[in-house]
């Protein structure tokens, strides 16, 4: 009998997104079980259902054969299930021990928190499982790897038998990853069970006993890790339905518009995120960047568009250096940017649609008369864009928050495309929006490319990359691993091998194709 | 469905009126409990400010200071900067204005504008350090501006005692501002207004600062809603990351919003010293600086609503004064009423009836939009 059995789990969110589609999933006691899949495959949702944070639309959960239902994570913790989240849930100003015992503090005479006891408990758990932490240190002052160990100890203090880890290695350096793996082995030796979410196949092979693959909310299958190769797992992950072809006229690409040369970026925590990226971008082409999320795409776009400072290298547009200039200066060089997260960067939801449409041009004529804005012109401008890009709204004065996700994204697209760009950076341009808006935005991207705009397309959706791009490069752990000069000849199977770092072209091979 | 509630202004007014009614009722209940003569006391509170001409004058005077402070906070809050250093700016501005008005050897026609200008300059400069610390080093403006209030207060006392102190008095104060530099009444010198003018000038000190305040309201409105700079402020306030991505210089906007608000805080200080205290004196603005926050919240950051909110707050302040003198209820009751009103306004869900009306037409719009997609 499996330790945990999730039967026929479905989760449909209020906005209609189907995150889990009749998923069956089971765990044996004492195993390390890897759960893999691309971003948006539904791994995290499934685990949140198991941890009680998300209520499934349908389906059942059995623990040791007995049906359970969790209304919150407290219920799950009572059943000895613990989860270590991707973003740590620690109080930065408390000590390590204080965080470990939070909510279940040992008391002196039933009154005061027994700090000494807290420290002892933390030290004991730390020794027992080989999770090195400093119990008295303030969380704010310790590094990411130790914070993660604190999270794990926190769960062990609550006597968790099943530990869910959501992409635990995403934030770790290779050395820290190795330490984590050692700790996981020790946990399992002492009878714990670990579920390990990741999309790094090397780690799957290294640590797990069994692996379950999910894709687009569905369960693809569970296999014993030793029976499959990394290639086979990659295939299960990226295989997908064929995407409807978009009418894309064949044109010859034009002049070189952007060159990216040995671009590097090191994160605040000291992790090298971009490790020498090179590519060129030409007029009249869509260059697709394929890769599993978290391999440096976000930072690549943010560094090019001036939102983050690069650590090294150079990026030239039309021969002029744009690296480490302000977003305003870069926009003045006609680089437009559809950001990956519209709610964070792309719009101000509480501001009106018309005010959202002018953030990159309010200081230009005819939208103002010197010091004063000309709101009549702003209205004219916004009404024209609302019409041209079919943004469904009764009035441009309404706040952006009144729009559906697809129409919000159209506001972003309308603003960026109408800026007469020379280079367009489109990052996840159709993420989380409905089919109609998706198709509209894809057609617009192709239209502008055909008119001669140089388009850099970053997307976690491989189907989107393959059907829109003229050329494709694959990005893996901050480096370009392959160049595919004719996107129509690339297969997803082949791309998958490069995206997951299983294969890599040599520098000379790539040089020729760039 | 069209009805009068569809106008945003009517809706917010309705909310405010409801909050006021509940707040005042609450105040009355407390008066009933604490007072032997509750009706009399509350009458003094509610009608006191308009019962005599000099009290009307006090009411308007208080309100003018509140208008300047409310405008100052409205501007920083629009950029979502929780800058609350007005108290310090105001007293230093008052000191600068007072000093120039007393000692600057020039005819009044130059001396008064120079005094007001000095107040503005000092107020703006005082805000510069917290503003820069916030924008370029990420130091919380809430903390630094609060600390700067304390520093300002000590500096004020030091300068007053050591340089401006009037000899041979026990009070800590400067000499009085000379007659010709005090502000004249706001009623124009016209033959048919002569009687009213004399009556007002005799029992009140409401000055032509009234017109400055009206102009300041207009100016703040234009800055926020009609200029490029105002767009930048509101964009930063709406979503800082969006503003940065769109190319707005967020740091510069943050600093500029705090400095511009300093102009209005400076006017508050100048008004205080020229029209009300007529000298630089210890404790001249105690607690006044934080009322600007209440005014800005009450007027939901709309400069045009600031005078209304200020008149209301000024009324409560004067009313509580009158009540204290006329009955056994202390003036602190006003804080209870103020707090109740603010609580009701900030916790929007406490007024579900109005809230429902408020959301209906937004939902309608959203539905309309979704319907048309299908």
Describe this structure in words.
- The complex is a heterodimer of chains A (514) and B (374).
- Chain A has 514 residues and is an alpha/beta fold.
- Chain A has three domains: 4-238, 3-Layer(aba) Sandwich (Rossmann fold), CATH 3.40.50.300; 246-334 and 421-514, 3-Layer(aba) Sandwich (Rossmann fold); 346-420, no CATH class.
- Chain A is built from 18 helices and 24 strands.
- In chain A, the strands form six sheets. Chain A has a six-stranded mixed beta sheet with strand order 6-9-10-3-11-12, sandwiched between helices. Chain A has a six-stranded mixed beta sheet with strand order 18-21-22-15-23-24, with helices on both faces. A four-stranded antiparallel beta sheet of chain A has the order 2-1-4-5, covered by helices on one side.
- In chain A, α14 (405-417) packs parallel to α15.
- Chain B contains 15 helices and no strands.
- Chain B folds into two domains: 1-35 and 329-374, no CATH class; 62-323, Orthogonal Bundle (ABC transporter involved in vitamin B12 uptake, BtuC), CATH 1.10.3470.
- Chain B is globular.
- In chain B, α8 packs across α9.
- Chain B has 374 residues and is mainly alpha-helical.
- The chains are: A alpha/beta (514), B mainly alpha (374).
């Amino acid at each position: 009998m499996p330790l945990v059995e999730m039967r026929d789990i479905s989760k449909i969110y209020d906005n209609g997104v189907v995150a889990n589609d009749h998923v069956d999933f089971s765990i044996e006691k004492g195993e390390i079980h890897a759960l893999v899949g691309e971003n948006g495959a539904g791994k995290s949702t499934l685990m949140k259902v198991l941890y009680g944070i998300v209520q499934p639309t349908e389906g059942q959960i059995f623990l040791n054969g007995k049906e359970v239902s969790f209304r919150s994570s407290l219920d799950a913790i009572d059943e000895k299930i613990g989860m270590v989240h991707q973003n740590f849930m620690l109080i930065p100003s408390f000590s390590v021990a204080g965080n470990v015992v939070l909510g279940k503090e040992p008391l002196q005479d039933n009154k005061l928190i027994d700090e000494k006891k807290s420290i002892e408990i933390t030290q004991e758990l730390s020794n027992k499982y080989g999770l090195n932490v400093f119990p008295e240190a303030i969380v704010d002052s310790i590094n990411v790897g130790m914070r993660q160990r604190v999270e794990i100890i926190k769960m062990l203090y609550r006597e968790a038998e099943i530990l869910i880890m959501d992409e635990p290695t995403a934030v770790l350096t290779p050395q820290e990853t190795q330490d984590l793996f050692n700790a996981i082995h020790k946990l399992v030796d002492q009878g714990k069970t670990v579920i390990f979410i990741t999309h790094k196949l090397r780690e799957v092979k290294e640590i797990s006993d069994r692996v379950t693959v999910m894709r687009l909310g569905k369960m693809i299958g569970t296999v014993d890790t030793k029976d499959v190769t990394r290639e086979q797992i990659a295939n299960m992950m990226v295989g997908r339905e064929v995407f409807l072809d978009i009418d894309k006229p064949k044109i010859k690409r034009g002049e070189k518009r952007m060159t990216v040369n040995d671009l590097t970026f090191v994160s605040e925590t000291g992790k090298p995120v971009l490790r020498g990226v090179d590519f060129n971008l030409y007029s009249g082409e869509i260059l697709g960047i394929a890769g599993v999320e978290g391999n440096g795409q976000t930072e690549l776009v943010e560094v090019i568009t001036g939102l983050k400072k690069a650590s090294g290298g150079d990026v030239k547009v039309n021969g002029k250096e744009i690296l480490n200039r302000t977003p305003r200066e870069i926009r003045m060089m006609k680089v437009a940017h559809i950001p990956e997260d519209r709610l964070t960067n792309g719009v101000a939801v509480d501001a009106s649609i018309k005010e959202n449409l002018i953030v990159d041009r309010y200081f230009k004529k005819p939208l103002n008369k010197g010091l004063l804005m000309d709101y009549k012109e702003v209205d004219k401008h916004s009404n024209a864009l609302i019409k041209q890009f079919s943004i469904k709204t009764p009035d441009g004065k309404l706040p952006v928050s009144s729009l559906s996700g697809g129409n919000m994204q159209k506001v972003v697209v309308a603003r960026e495309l109408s800026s007469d760009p020379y280079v367009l950076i489109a990052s996840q341009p159709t993420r989380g929006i409905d089919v109609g808006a998706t198709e509209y935005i894809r057609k617009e991207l192709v239209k502008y490319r055909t008119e001669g705009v140089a388009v850099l397309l970053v997307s976690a959706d491989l189907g989107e990359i393959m059907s829109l791009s003229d050329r494709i490069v694959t990005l893996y752990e901050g480096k370009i691993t392959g160049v595919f000069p004719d996107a129509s000849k690339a297969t997803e199977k082949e791309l998958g091998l490069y995206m997951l770092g299983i294969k890599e072209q040599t520098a000379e091979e790539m040089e020729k194709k760039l | 469905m069209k009805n009068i509630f569809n106008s945003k202004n009517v809706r917010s007014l309705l909310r405010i009126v409801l909050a006021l009614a509940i707040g005042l009722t609450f105040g009355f209940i407390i008066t009933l409990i604490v007072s032997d003569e509750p009706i009399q006391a509350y009458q003094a509170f509610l009608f006191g400010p308009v019962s005599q001409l000099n009290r009307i004058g006090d009411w308007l005077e208080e309100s003018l200071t509140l208008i300047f402070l409310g405008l100052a906070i409205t501007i920083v809050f629009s950029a979502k900067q929780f800058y609350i250093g007005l108290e310090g700016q105001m007293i230093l501005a008052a000191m600068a204005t007072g000093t120039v008005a007393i000692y600057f050897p020039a005819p009044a026609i130059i001396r008064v504008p120079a005094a007001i200008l000095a107040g503005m300059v000092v107020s703006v400069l005082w805000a510069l350090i917290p503003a820069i610390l916030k924008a370029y080093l990420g130091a919380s403006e809430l903390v630094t501006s609060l600390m700067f209030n304390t520093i300002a207060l000590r500096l004020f006392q030091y300068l007053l005692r050591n340089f401006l102190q009037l000899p041979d008095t026990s009070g800590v104060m400067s000499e009085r501002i000379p007659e010709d530099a005090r502000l004249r009444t706001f009623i124009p010198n016209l033959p048919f207004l002569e009687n009213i003018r004399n009556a007002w000038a005799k029992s009140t000190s409401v000055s032509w600062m009234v017109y400055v305040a009206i102009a300041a309201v207009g100016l703040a409105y234009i800055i926020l809603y009609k200029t490029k700079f105002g767009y930048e402020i509101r964009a930063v306030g709406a979503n800082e990351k969006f503003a940065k991505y769109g190319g707005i210089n967020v740091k510069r906007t943050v600093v500029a919003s705090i400095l511009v608000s300093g102009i209005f805080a400076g006017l508050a200080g100048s008004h205080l010293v020229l029209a009300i205290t007529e000298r630089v004196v210890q404790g001249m603005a105690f607690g006044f600086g934080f009322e600007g926050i209440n005014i800005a919240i009450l007027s939901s950051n709309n400069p045009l609503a600031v005078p209304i909110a200020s008149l209301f707050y000024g009324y409560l302040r004067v009313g509580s004064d009158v009540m204290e003198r006329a009955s056994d209820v202390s003036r602190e009751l006003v804080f209870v009423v103020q707090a109740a009103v603010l609580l009701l306004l900030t916790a929007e869900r406490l007024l579900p009836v109005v809230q429902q009306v408020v959301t209906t037409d937004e939902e309608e719009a959203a539905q309309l939009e979704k319907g048309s997609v299908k």
